[in-house]
Design a protein that fits this description.
Blueprint lengths: L2 H30 L3 H27 L5 H38 L1
Length: about 110
């Protein structure tokens, strides 16, 4: 097995573990949310993370595909992956800022 295959296997395993780890959070966020708006932000955040991880899994396998047409789509997929990552970070930052502001009121 080449070093490239080992790295690819590690990335694939990490993304798969992260995706499976996020699934129970969907059930907890609906029960534990204090308001419908907060629940919506949490759901959007988890959905972004799940979409990012699924896209990462697809990109890892597409990068080794024998079809050159699929290889041509990989840069676009990487760009979409980065967009999902930025949106996820923005939502996380916003939720943390709201939690800090709510904590300061009490």
């Amino acid at each position: 097995m080449t070093i490239y295959s080992v790295i690819q296997l590690l990335i694939f395993s990490g993304l798969l573990f992260n995706t499976v780890h996020l699934m129970p959070a969907f059930g907890r966020l609906i029960k534990g949310a204090e308001s419908a708006l907060q629940s919506g932000y949490l759901c959007a955040l988890l959905t972004m993370r799940l979409a990012r991880n699924i896209l990462g899994l697809i990109l890892v396998t597409a990068s080794t595909a024998p079809n050159p047409e699929i290889h041509a789509l990989v840069p676009k997929g990487i760009l979409l992956f980065l967009i999902f990552a930025v949106l996820s970070a923005a939502l996380t930052h916003y939720l943390e800022r709201v939690r800090v502001e709510e904590g300061a009121r009490f």
